[in-house]
Amino acid sequence: MGPSRETSEQESATTLLEGRISVAAALRSPYRTVHRVLLRAGRQDRSLRWLQHRAHEANVPVEQVAAAEIDAVTQGNSHGGVAAVAGQRRFVGMASLLPQGNASAFVVMLDGIEDPFNFGHALRALYAMGAHGLVLRPRNWMSAAATVAKASAGASELIPIAVAETVDAAAHFCRQQGLTVACAQKENAVPVDQADLTAPLLLLVGGEKRGVTRSFIKQADLSLQIPYDRDDFAPSLGTTAAAAALAYEVMRQRKVSHNAGRNRVVP
Length: 267
What we know:
The chain is α/β, with parallel strands linked by helices. It has 2 domains: 83 residues, CATH 3.30.1330.30; 169 residues, 3-Layer(aba) Sandwich (Alpha/beta knot). 38% of the residues lie in helices and 19% in strands. Helix 3 links the parallel strand 2 and strand 3. It starts with a helix and ends with a helix.
């Protein structure tokens, strides 16, 4: 007799995270429920004691299991003897991506990325550079939770993520909230260091092969390109590098603007 329908649904509703950084991020995250943490029996160090403490604070059971048991449910051997059984990632509404007042909103839509490692690395850069939230299409790489969490160094568990049916739908909502809609592309675009990126912003970054669709480029409020320092190099940057470069410039300009305002002397 096969498993019951209820059991099958419960199993399909869980995902496995692996590695200390990914599991620690999931325990901090308001967007995923961690059901139990698996630790390789016999291993103890300061970082694992902290992980056990954090799990205890979150009322998540910790199980000491044989190394073979963790190896059987994880990919490769880079898990370091740490894994977690968790629920599915919870998404938020588009409005929840915006900071209060929308004054400095920086939201990014990643569209068409074809590799989960590239997706994770891009997300890692965006989170590190201060993006307030991420927009994805319904079919996205968050289903590959273990790979994405590891590639993003846990950022995928911490950044708010909303789902929009189309790029146009995301752009329409953000325009209604006062955000400028920008896309990354090369032709007829403003060098990113010459554009004003301090205003509320939705930035669309396309995938490795297709990039941003031409139909959307025509309707974007702002097209951005990353200037090169080598005239003899024509290929576009990969998605991860492009996302990191663009997000860094957004962060840099806003820091400069913030510091200038803070240091301004009022007569």
